[in-house]
Description:
15% strand, alpha/beta, Rna Polymerase Sigma Factor, Chain: A
Amino acid sequence: MRRVSIFGATGSIGQNTIDLIARAPQDYQVVALTGAGNISQLAEDARRLKAEIAVTAHEGRLENLRAALDGSGVAVAAGTAAIAEAATRPADWVMSAIVGAAGLAPGIAALEQGATLALANKESLVCAGALMLATARTHKARILPVDSEHSAVFQALVGEDMDAIERIIITASGGAFRDWPVEKLATATLKEASSHPNWDMGQRITIDSASMFNKAMELIETKEFFGVKPAQIEAVIHPESMIHALVGFRDGALMAHVGPPDMRHAIGYALHWPDRRHLPVERLDLAAIGQLSFRAPCETRWPALRLAREVMEAGGLSGAVFNAAKETALDAFIAGEIGFTQMSEVVEAVLDTLSAAPGHIDAKMTLDNVAKTDHLAREAARSVINRRAG
Ligand code: NAD
Ligand code: MG
């Protein structure tokens, strides 16, 4: 039996992971399941999957969780430290599916115990890619990508020589506003930004898809994970979301990964790797699909893509600044404090301020320094937001 833990179990990726694991309960011993506010979902899954421990991020919800799991034999805990501690429980395979920079510490803890980390939490690579990879190397742990584009690249690279890679092309659906007139974007509402044309995902990543901050993060994630140069990474708009990524080799060949927009494919690939097993995803009927289309991304419509290039070039802790500023700007958009197009303005202002001040983005990449930089960038973002909202 494989020992598995799921961080962010109550979210969209977490629930898809549970869907796969619950189909073969005899194969898995569930160690830890974690969530935040949705206590009833967390408790229901922990009971059903006979988890060893259920942890909520909210300390104030511990008693609710305890009551919901009374008599089940599942241990309970609460708080950020308890989540990181749960990641030290011996496990063979750990799903990292918390949203945001909060996923970094448990991811590092899982790598430190040598677990295979299935990484949906792209924020940890954006904030601290070098640290994640170094931790994996030191502890002989493995990181397997779960973001669909990165899983696609990873699969296209099986058996290939890394030196033969010329470029990596990441596709983007274009999100909710790909066909809107650019002038109208400033008026986009939360409801409009929260609906994705192709994928069913958590609210934050859905809005990040509309602003293309999600793709921006994925470009940085590509650089960190595959160790290629920024100039080798491209994005292309592909509204059908059937091709998830392509790898171009030095002989001119492009290897594309094609599949339905269903995260259970990338999750299942990471779960069964290096095997390929049957997965309950739709089989594509290419004749029925008819055609696939592509277009160049426009950086006026999506300034996040330009900012990602700057972050990739700057390196160091600029990814941590970018992510923290983005998370804060997203919170402010969700709270109605700023408009849709102001999110990228806030992120750009914070990047400019902190890049100009020595000691921030060039500090040594440790978990502590990433946390400090994250904190500073959130404060800087709040002050930009307050100025704009005021
Ligand atoms: P979601 O919002 O649906 O779920 C997030 C999970 O994190 C929930 O379990 C929530 O309880 C938990 N959580 C939230 N804040 C927390 C905190 N401060 N501390 C601890 N736990 C916290 O998000 P999602 O769409 O499942 O995305 C999860 C991660 O996977 C993100 O990094 C996202 O970018 C990435 N991802 C998601 C998809 C997708 O299809 N949903 C695809 C690719 C990558
Ligand atoms: Mg993705």
